[in-house]
């Protein structure tokens, strides 16, 4: 970066290292903020068919006596329908915060639900799991904390299946996966829950559930992909997950998802894409990921091609998830010349530029990926320039968003440093006027001045 010192300008080569260091520090801070935000993103899973059937049923606030009666009937009712009906009524009541508070105050209430999970009655298991599901989704920290003792029982139950980890009652498994995913977001989870999970056989079972193939069930896979994502976010022991195959499993699932969105119009694939993209993105920031990188099936153009297929799918179906795919692309290209080469050899720069019009958040991420490519040196900048990039940068410099403009300036600086003639082409396209719009913006003044100096004096 150019900067004034005793009326003189610092050498360019020093500026390249300073720019690189600044980008790495900013990205590290952004990744930390993303992990923290993702750890508190509560989700509510409810069966749409079930909700339609219960339409018009108002969730009632229950007192201690009523809750105790429901639990007694669920345990000792003379008929299965009576037992199931008691749990259905309890589940509806647990949608109310007042009932949740009363429930957790009752001694043995959580233990009773867990006991019903271990019964050999599928419908009772399912309703007990749904009750835990309602409790684990509570916004009240005391309710979530009361569920924590259930974690060890959940681990025993979930880890106790056959090596295939395929329950005949997939709906039960899905509901339990959801309940566990909510508990993994509790503030106590990194100390009290996740070490127990990592010390059990559950991570290997989860990875088996996420293996592409005919046994993969979308609903179950979604819930355990979120479980895996929250464990990764906690950073308790991601090196262990990588050695158990988490990175390669998620990579293969990414390739499979790209194929699936081309073959089918089924809704719901984006629900699995989100935790898979997040999990991969966060794992790739770990040192252990680099150490085992050569052993993974992530070192070829298939991953980049698959990611762009998913980006196009999300653009059509769920544009709000585009940042997740672009964060993964950012992490793939940040330290890897091979992935940057794949972007160029597959002619994916122009499709990437088309995303600049989606939103400011997406624009910043697109420009960050392009900076990753340009940062790799003259050979990469030569392939980026000029093409459609110059006109796209002139457009983004007209944005009012300071972060978009700042990232555009950073990309221009790299291009000016590494690509002879880029500054002259920029001048010929009224580039100085584009820069002058931002001369009075405090956060951008230094970079605007540096680029003006390079463009005018070389």
UniProtKB/TrEMBL annotation:
Q: Which SUPFAM superfamilies match?
A: ARM repeat
Keywords, sorted A to Z: Membrane, Transmembrane
- The answer to whether UniProt assigns keyword Cytoplasm to this entry is no
Q: Does the keyword Membrane apply?
A: yes
What parts of the sequence cross the membrane?
A: none
Q: Which InterPro entries does UniProt cross-reference here?
A: ARM-like, ARM-type_fold, Armadillo
- Put simply, this protein is called Transmembrane and coiled-coil domain-containing protein 6 isoform X3
């Amino acid at each position: 970066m150019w900067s004034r010192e005793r009326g003189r300008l610092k050498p360019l080569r020093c500026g390249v290292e300073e720019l690189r260091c600044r980008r790495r520090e900013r990205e590290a801070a952004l990744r930390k903020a993303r992990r923290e935000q993702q750890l508190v993103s509560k989700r509510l899973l409810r069966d749409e068919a079930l909700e339609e059937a219960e339409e018009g049923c108002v969730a009632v606030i229950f007192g201690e006596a009523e809750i105790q009666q429901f639990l007694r009937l669920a345990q000792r009712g003379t008929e299965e329908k009576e037992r199931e009906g008691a749990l259905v009524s309890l589940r509806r009541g647990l949608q109310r915060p007042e009932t949740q508070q009363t429930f957790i105050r009752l001694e043995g209430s959580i233990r009773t639900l867990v006991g019903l999970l271990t019964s050999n009655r599928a419908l009772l298991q399912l309703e007990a799991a749904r009750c835990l599901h309602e409790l684990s989704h509570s916004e009240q920290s005391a309710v979530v904390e009361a569920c924590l003792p259930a974690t060890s029982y959940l681990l025993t139950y979930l880890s106790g299946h056959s090596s295939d980890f395929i329950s005949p009652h997939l709906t039960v498994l899905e509901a339990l996966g959801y309940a566990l995913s909510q508990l993994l977001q509790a503030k106590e989870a990194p100390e009290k829950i996740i070490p127990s999970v990592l010390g059990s056989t559950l991570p290997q079972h989860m990875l088996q559930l996420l293996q592409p193939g005919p046994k993969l069930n979308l609903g179950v896979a979604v819930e355990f992909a979120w479980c895996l994502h929250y464990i990764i976010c906690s950073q308790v022991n991601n090196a262990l997950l990588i050695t158990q195959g988490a990175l390669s499993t998620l990579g293969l699932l990414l390739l499979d998802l790209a194929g699936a969105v081309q073959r089918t119009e089924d809704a719901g694939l984006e629900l699995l894409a989100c935790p898979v993209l997040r999990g991969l993105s966060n794992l790739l920031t770990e040192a252990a990921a680099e150490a085992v990188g050569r052993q993974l099936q992530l070192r070829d153009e298939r991953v980049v091609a698959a990611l762009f297929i998913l980006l196009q799918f999300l653009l059509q179906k769920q544009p709000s998830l585009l940042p997740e795919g672009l964060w993964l692309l950012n992490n793939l290209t940040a330290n890897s010349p091979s992935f940057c080469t794949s972007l160029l050899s597959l002619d994916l720069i122009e499709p990437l530029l088309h995303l600049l019009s989606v939103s400011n958040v997406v624009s910043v991420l697109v420009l960050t990926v392009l900076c990753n490519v340009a940062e790799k040196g003259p050979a990469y900048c030569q392939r980026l320039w000029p093409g459609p990039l110059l006109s796209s940068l002139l457009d983004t410099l007209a944005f009012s968003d300071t972060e978009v403009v700042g990232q555009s300036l950073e990309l221009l600086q790299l291009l000016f440093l590494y690509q002879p003639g880029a500054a002259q082409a920029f001048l010929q396209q009224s580039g100085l006027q584009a820069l002058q719009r931002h001369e009075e913006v405090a956060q951008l003044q230094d970079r605007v001045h540096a680029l003006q100096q390079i463009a005018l004096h070389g």
